[in-house]
Model the fold of this input.
Amino acid sequence: MNMPERITVDGTSALIYHVDSTPSTNDLAISLLADTATPTPHLTTIIADQQSAGRGRLGRTWVAPDGQALLASTIVALPASLPSDQLGWLVHACALSIRDALSTRLQPLGRIVTLKWPNDVLVDGTRKICGILAQLAPASSPFTTAVILGYGINIAQRPDNLATAQATSLYAEGDDEAAQDTDSVIRSVLADVLRGLDERIRSLIANGNAADSGLADEATVAQPLIGQRIALAEPTDPTGRVALEGVAISLTSTGSLLVRTDDGRTHDINAGDVLATGIPLTTVHDTKEKRANN
Done:
């Protein structure tokens, strides 16, 4: 891994560090936070051309060819006075900011960018273009809470060079500039993401909660699965076995998913994989409440 180099990105005043390669931008962000000689103010962002050990939720790997994706981690510094039960909304704020940045490029091509709870950004409801990973980090001050938002956005991959058949990229969706001038597109998307994230976090802090800031309503509207019948797998089950079926009612006050099963009970779900939406599913016979944990 080479040393991070400070760079300037048009359209944002955030402090940006670039590295050619790193095992994980999230891990590098934690290291920079711990280094008192390195400035890491709010919205400091690390971007890499390549990750050798990129990961998603639950330790899953995130694979992207060298120089063809926006691989980034943004350090969010929050006042310690913000209730800890509001931290879950940071993933939603990040996802909405990414949705807006990608919609600017994809809407003119007839594509629709939406969110999939808990941490994915999709094109046309089926193709994954981005995943997000949030983690707490040691804060530099007792008066702040530090959260690192890691995100990988597929930019220039060809359709035959994507990790899975369900994945996509800007280029695969018809954005030719994404392949012709990848670095410029990466920087433009990053600037848009950071502007949107800054606005949403400022409002969350000013209002003290996601409901009053409008973030909760915005995130709910952006989730097509709300009001749909879904199947959920336990997040730690590698087989993807269905653990819960029901109707996704809403997002809760903490950003988790509220699901009503056929027996009328409601379940507050903090983590899990949505396996299907909008499909009539068989009733789960085991109606014992199952709460997924991170």
